[in-house]
Known about the structure:
Helices cover 38% and strands 16% of the residues. By secondary structure, the protein is an alpha/beta fold. Among the domains are: 1-156, Alpha-Beta Horseshoe (Leucine-rich repeat, LRR (right-handed beta-alpha superhelix)), CATH 3.80.10.10; 429-592, Leucine-rich repeat, LRR (right-handed beta-alpha superhelix) (Alpha-Beta Horseshoe). The protein has a 19-stranded parallel beta sheet, with no helix packed on it. Strand 14 (430-434), helix 16 (443-455) and strand 15 (461-465) form a beta-alpha-beta unit. The two termini are 27 Å apart.
Amino acid sequence: MGDKEIQDLSHTLRWLKTIKVIRLDFKNLKKLTNQGFFFLSENLKKLSSVHTLIINFTGCDQITEKGIKSLKETIKRLRFLRKLSLNFQGCTQTTDNFLQDLAESMQNLVSLQEISIDLSGCYHITDSGMDEVIKSIQRRSLVRSVKFSVGFCGYVSNLTMLSLSKGLSQLPLLEDLSIGLRKCLCSEKRVNETLSQEDEITYYFKKMKSLKRISSDSQGNPAMENGILAGFCQALSTLELLQAFKINAGQCHYLNDECLQNIEEYLVQCPELNEIDLNFSECSDVKDQGVIHIANFLQKRVDMKKISLNFNSCEEITDQGVTALGKSLKGQRSLEKLAIFCEDIQATDVGFGTISESIKGLESLGSLELHLGRVHTLTDEFLSGLSETLGSLANSLKTLKLDINGCQLISNKGIEIVSQGIKKLSLLQNINLQLYSNHMITDETCNSLADAFDTLKYLKSVHLNVEDCSKITDQGIICLSEGLNKSLFLEKIDLNSSWCEGIGDDGLKSLSKCLHRLKRLDSVSLGLEGCHMITDAGICYLKEALGKSLGIREVDLRLASCSKISQEGFEGLVDHLEAISSLQKLNFSAPV
Length: 592
């Protein structure tokens, strides 16, 4: 799609005089230029009844300030606008001049309630430009939700954080705040110059008395250190309405166990807090004591509804910390969603077994995620305990994600045992199993999982990743296909069997028959890279099945390094898919 298509779309829009909601996604349209932008803006500004405008320009790097400037007059005319969402991620020609135009365009939007602006990767913008936008927003007294992202903008610093906290503290109805500051500070010198603002930032956050949800993405930000996070948490502890706290502090190497102690000390004072999402992945100085502080917090707050904790690659965490965390989950009777990320740490079956045992019988738990990849000491014994736990969650669990990639001590026997627990999850709708890079599992694993899938009546989505499981062959794919082909409600299949060199045309034939039988299927993703036995015959089976699938909307096929597929066979598949009238999204990688 380019300027001509945008022009045609724009002409269509101008006849929709009573339209209320406009959502346009131009992501990665490299052919979209200022001319197309102008056509769009000219017709949008005639739609005065619009109350929601959402436009995604991610990766449209041909648009310059001249094109963006035309959007200014468009927004000014949408007097009844209540929600504005603009994504300029990766639009590298965006500068402070655009932000000034954007600030001016919002002056007449007296009804504005939700604002979302993503400028990640727009590396020319500075604190000065952000200040103009923030000043404009602080005059909108009805605003309830603000989302800003300026990640990877090297000239944006804590001065923007100060300006943001000061401006938003003047919004009496602000409930939802999301701030993205990934890797923003351009130098250590800038860090040292702006650390002095932390007390002032804390002061303004304390004034946001209506705040209910806050999310901060500071991944890789060198200014994020214990003192700043302590002040932030202290400010939040004064907010009596705060319900949800999310922080992404991954790769913030200045953080240590003291930081998690601050979370325990301050956030426990928030009377309404019932959702936490804490990401400390790759923070090498976060160790067992830090995890124990989080466990202490959870033991004091047994009314949590959602818990997500990420300690991936915190390599010094052992069973001591994981066991404490597990015990703290035992009393969480209101817990609806639990996600634990502990990949590449030193814990064993003992620590993870405590987590499994503690969540046994939590009657409100509807979603469980355990990410334990590359824990090289994890064995079938853990899966045996997990199987019992799953059986106790039969009447509540609807979503299960288990990531045990690269756990080389887990075998077919372990998968068979945990499959018995999965079979008991009578309400399960979504299952995601990441088993890749395990050379111990074979077609027997596929057989066990197929037996489980066959009993799950309400499955809507299945994600299974067995990439680089070199002992899986056509027989395993045939078993999986037979286990899924009776699913009445299945809408999405994501099967990644790349580099399983024993998979060929027979497996693809069986899978294709399965896809044809699934009447509600609307999304298919198949990873088949490196499956050298697949030929044009297998591609023909797939082409026929997808062509006969009614309502298919998304197809993702990865066929790189399938050396026996000819160019003609591949092009025939692509042409066939592009002719499917219901198809909205098509991704593929070509065989070499």
